[in-house]
């Protein structure tokens, strides 16, 4: 397969672009594999890649019910950051950011990772104090973080709403300069191509319709393309995790499935060279500008449970109001489209990555709002778990029984809130 480089681009330009190979194969599924990963999103593809590259396990299949990038992988706002504080999250997301910083070189594919800074607006002295604690924790654990005064913020992002009578007055901001955005479909294609080069079979249009069990083991998966057996099975299907869990006759999970919408406007001239977020008085909002010029933004969940990938009108109004409150200059900009991802929400806002009650079944789920930024580390640690059959110390508390042990990995500090999920 062609290795991408400046020379290959130049050479194929001279040859009329006729020298490129397919990015990945489209193989027929084999009857059995050493490892079968259900879910061809970013986490599933990253897991397959790191199984092959880190552990030498190449007899791997990734099963995707649709096409690569057609699920949550292509339905997000592509923000990458590591401004987490709690044990179990701090090291995980910092490792993920470190992987992001070298991902294009590692995969030999441009994932368009842009370290344009992540700016969190602060609206009260209490919020400033809480943010200072978080960012000091980051600095003490070998990451980057800054607390900006209002004057410094005004110099960097002059067109925010700094008016004295603003709905959400801004008093300061926290900043992680190494954070930024990446291109979601490029990440999916990069991992798919790199995994395929190492012998992984990526099986598209292959929906799992049943799970075959023999006592405490999974013997195979029934799919729309026949029965596929696997010595080890990994679930990485985001909001559809509960569906597969029931297929495996494992009962219920501490996960609820909700929709999370995102929006993009018509293209504009360069306006915002950072990711800007704020959360106050029940509002939550984030915005950045894409390489095409569209303003990409979103906010909180649709709070009723659903498996649908369709939007709902109240969040459109909520997010539009947040956008105008903080960036009044967007008042006459036209909304181009909006879409919805299917989110697997855990009760404390943190993920599960663990072995399951079945001996050869492994779970990767409960990513809430953090799935995209976690993709590289998720694949790294899930592959390690499957290969070595034990969790790395970084993820050892991210199991299904942590609540029984009194472990609550709650970055918001709000506690479990299932009653708010519908």
- Percent of residues in helices: 25-40%
Which blocks of ≥5 consecutive residues have pLDDT under 50? none
Number of helices: 10
Strand percentage lies at 25-35%
Order of helices and strands: HEHEEHHEHEHEEHEEEEHEEEEEHEEEH
Rg, nearest Å: 22 Å
Please state the overall shape, judged from the principal axes of the Cα atoms: globular
Mean of the pLDDT scores? 93
Describe the largest sheet: 9 strands, mixed
What do you see in this structure?
With 422 residues, the chain is of the alpha+beta class. Strands 4, 5, 6, 12, 13, 14, 15, 16 and 17 form a nine-stranded mixed beta sheet that branches. Strands 1, 2, 8, 9, 10, 11, 18 and 19 form an eight-stranded mixed beta sheet that branches. Strand 18 and strand 19 form a beta hairpin. Helix 2 runs parallel beside helix 7, helix 2 crosses helix 10 and helix 3 crosses helix 10. The longest helix is centred in the last third of the chain and has 18 residues.
């Amino acid at each position: 397969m062609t290795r991408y480089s400046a020379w290959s681009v130049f050479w194929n330009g001279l040859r009329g672009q006729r020298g490129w190979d397919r990015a990945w194969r489209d193989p027929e599924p084999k009857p059995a594999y050493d490892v079968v990963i259900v879910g061809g999103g970013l986490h599933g593809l990253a897991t397959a890649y790191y199984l092959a590259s880190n552990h030498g396990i190449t007899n791997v299949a990734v099963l995707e019910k649709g096409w690569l990038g057609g699920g949550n992988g292509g339905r997000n706002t592509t923000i990458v950051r590591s401004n987490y504080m709690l044990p179990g999250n701090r090291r995980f997301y910092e490792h993920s950011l470190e992987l992001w910083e070298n991902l294009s070189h590692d995969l030999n594919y441009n994932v368009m990772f842009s370290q344009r800074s992540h700016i969190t607006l602060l609206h009260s002295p209490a919020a400033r104090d809480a943010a200072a604690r978080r960012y000091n924790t980051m600095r003490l654990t070998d990451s980057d973080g800054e607390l900006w005064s209002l004057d410094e913020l005004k110099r960097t992002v002059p067109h925010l709403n700094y008016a004295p009578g603003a709905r959400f007055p801004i008093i300061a901001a926290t900043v992680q300069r190494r954070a930024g955005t990446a291109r979601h479909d490029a990440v999916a294609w990069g991992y798919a191509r790199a995994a395929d080069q190492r012998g992984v079979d990526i099986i598209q249009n292959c929906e799992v319709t049943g799970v075959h069990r023999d006592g405490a083991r999974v013997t195979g998966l029934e799919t729309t393309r026949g029965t596929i057996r696997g010595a080890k099975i990994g679930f990485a299907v985001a909001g559809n995790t509960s569906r597969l869990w029931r297929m495996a006759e494992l009962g219920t999970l501490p996960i609820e499935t909700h929709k999370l919408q995102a929006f993009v406007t018509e293209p504009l001239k360069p306006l915002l060279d950072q990711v800007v977020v704020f959360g106050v008085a029940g509002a939550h909002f984030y915005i950045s500008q894409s390489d095409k010029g569209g303003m990409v933004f979103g906010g909180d969940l649709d709070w009723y449970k659903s498996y649908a990938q369709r939007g709902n009108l109240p969040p459109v109004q909520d997010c539009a109001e947040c956008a105008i409150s903080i960036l009044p200059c967007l008042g006459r900009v036209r909304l181009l489209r909006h879409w919805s991802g299917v989110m697997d929400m855990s009760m404390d806002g943190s993920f599960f990555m663990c072995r399951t009650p079945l001996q050869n079944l492994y779970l990767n789920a409960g990513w809430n709002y953090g799935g995209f930024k976690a993709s590289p580390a998720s694949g790294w640690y899930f592959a390690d778990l499957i290969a070595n059959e034990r969790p790395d110390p970084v993820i050892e508390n991210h199991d299904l029984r942590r609540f029984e042990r009194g472990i609550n990995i709650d970055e918001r500090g709000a506690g479990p809130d299932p009653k708010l999920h519908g």
